[in-house]
Amino acid sequence: MALTNDDLQAMSNLLDDKLKPIKDDIDTLEKKITSLELTLENETNHGIKIIAEGHLDLSRKLDQALKVENEKEILLLRVNHLENELRKVKERISQIA
Q1: What is the pTM of this model?
Q2: Average pLDDT by consecutive 10-residue portion of the chain (97 residues)?
Q3: How far is CA 55 from CA 2, 41, 64, 67, in A?
Q4: What angle do CA 36, 42, 46 make, to 5 degrees?
Q5: CA–CA distance, 31 with 33 (Å, rounded to integer)
Q6: 11: which residues sit within 8 A by CB, 6+ positions away?
Q7: How many whole angstroms separate alpha carbon 22 and alpha carbon 16?
């Protein structure tokens, strides 16, 4: 017994009816994936960029603060050295006078 075109058409329609919910689910998943991709691209990546720029600014400010602190330490060392030199000069003057 051979299948007729009507039989094949009926089988095709049955398969289409059975597969329609799966196709709908796939369409829904594709829409959700597209939405997630757009969210990642437009919001998450942009947010990460903003945070990274903020951290870069903090890093620069820290470098500037450390530079000032280093200069302060050098100045304190120089003042200490000059105070010792001044003390020695005063001692020599008091010995001479």
Answers
A1: 0.47
A2: 87 93 95 92 87 86 87 93 94 88
A3: 74, 21, 14, 18
A4: 125
A5: 5
A6: 3
A7: 10
24: which 2 tokens? 């709908």
Structure tokens at 79: 């003042």
Side chain identity at residue 83, one-letter code:
E
**Token pair recorded at residue 82:** 């000059």
How far, in Å, CA of 4 to CA of 11, rounded? Answer: 11
The DSSP line for the chain is -PPPHHHHHHHHHHHHHHHHHHHHHHHHHHHHHHHHHHHIIIIIHHHHHHHHHHHHHHHHHHHHHHHHHHHHHHHHHHHHHHHHHHHHHHHHHHHH-
The residue type found at 68 is: V
Q: What's the rounded Cα separation, in Å, for the pair 62 and 26? A: 51
